[in-house]
Design brief:
- There is one protein chain.
- The protein has 300 residues and is of the alpha+beta class.
- It folds into 2 domains: 8-187, Sandwich (Jelly Rolls); 193-299, Arc Repressor Mutant, subunit A (Orthogonal Bundle), CATH 1.10.10.60.
- 49% of the residues lie in helices and 19% in strands.
- The chain has 13 helices and 10 strands.
- The chain has helices at residues 10-13, 34-38, 103-111, 116-123, 135-153, 160-181, 193-208, 215-222, 226-237, 241-257, 264-270, 276-287, 291-299; strands at 8-9, 27-33, 44-46, 49-57, 59-64, 67-72, 75-79, 84-90, 95-102, 130-132.
- Strand 5 and strand 6 form a beta hairpin.
- The two termini are 31 Å apart.
- Mean pLDDT is 83; it is low at 1-5 and 17-23.
């Protein structure tokens, strides 16, 4: 299986994957098929949003925060800011639906005391962000997502934002109810101390990678030594802190270079490189072309 050399963002993963509604960028609902997802098999994705994938048919093998999981019909995968995941394999009959909510919208919901907060902490009770639903629960969540999809398409509604928030509210209430009624996790399955450090490191990395390029920053935030953090990351995901950091920076650089309003110097500053030359050398080392050549190629 071909391993993609670059990490993608969640937004990139589903670009053109299937038919989508004309909803705003903050909230997206997409239908997923095996054919649509096949091009992304082997690509590691990092979350800058919250994403809920409801499996309606078929099976798939996923890697969530560098751990393999098998998913099937009536599973829901709950991914949030700081998660890394990769599609390893998808059955030909796979069908699913994904709900994407941007980090900005999540923060807005927090400020209005949306029940998403309950979902977030409910999921933390489980070692993995994966729930097995009953057929009735799966159908109910599918209905709630379908209702939300209807709401987000009616952008001329006088109370559009309130309608979208209320539709999300209903979905999150249903999901919270399912999580809270689920059996408590086995106490013996609690994550280890190193796993907790690793999870927190991933969250910090996605939050600060644009401005903080050294392992010492993340180790200090975790109150551990840089050497210890390096050992944890290498053992749990097989890559170094620098590997993950540079992959994130490269992915972000490609996105920014596709914004014509930004100069290459501004992008270098945005990503906290010492100067434009240092950014250019970094980008060419990872892509084989200069930032200007990449921009010309993708922008025509």
């Amino acid at each position: 299986m071909k391993e993609d050399s670059a990490i993608k963002t969640d937004a990139e993963l589903f670009q053109g994957a299937s038919e989508t509604t004309e909803e705003p960028s903050n909230v997206k609902i997409m239908q997923l098929t095996a054919a649509a997802l096949h091009q992304h098999v082997g690509t590691r994705v990092y979350l800058r949003s919250s994403m809920f994938i409801l499996v309606l048919n078929g099976t798939a093998a996923l890697e969530i925060n560098f751990k393999a999981h098998d998913v099937g019909q009536n599973n829901i995968i709950l991914l949030s800011f700081g998660h890394f995941f990769k599609i390893l394999e998808v059955s030909p009959d796979f069908k699913g639906v994904v709900l994407y909510v941007s980090q900005e919208y999540v923060e807005a919901m927090f400020s209005s005391e949306m029940v998403y907060k309950r979902v977030k902490y409910g999921v933390k009770m489980h070692k993995t962000p994966l729930l097995q639903l009953s057929p009735q629960q799966s159908e109910l969540l599918a209905q709630r997502i379908a209702f939300l999809q209807e709401v987000v398409t009616v952008q001329r509604h006088l109370y559009y934002q309130e309608m979208v928030l209320n539709a999300l509210h209903i979905f999150f209430l249903e999901l919270s109810n399912i999580i809270e009624q689920a059996e408590q996790p086995d106490p013996t399955a609690k994550p280890s101390r190193d796993e907790l450090y690793f999870q927190r490191f991933l969250e910090l990395l996605v939050l600060h990678y644009k401005t903080q390029h050294h392992v010492e920053f993340y180790a200090e935030k975790l109150h551990i030594t840089p050497h210890y953090l390096t050992q944890i990351v290498k053992r749990l995901c097989g890559q170094t802190v620098a590997d993950l950091l540079f992959q994130l920076l490269f992915s972000e650089a490609k996105l920014l270079l596709q914004q014509p309003g930004l100069t290459i110097q501004q992008i270098a500053q945005e990503l906290n490189f010492s100067d434009q030359s240092a950014f250019g050398k970094f980008f060419k080392r990872n892509s084989g072309v200069s930032p200007k050549e990449f921009r010309n190629r993708v922008m025509g």
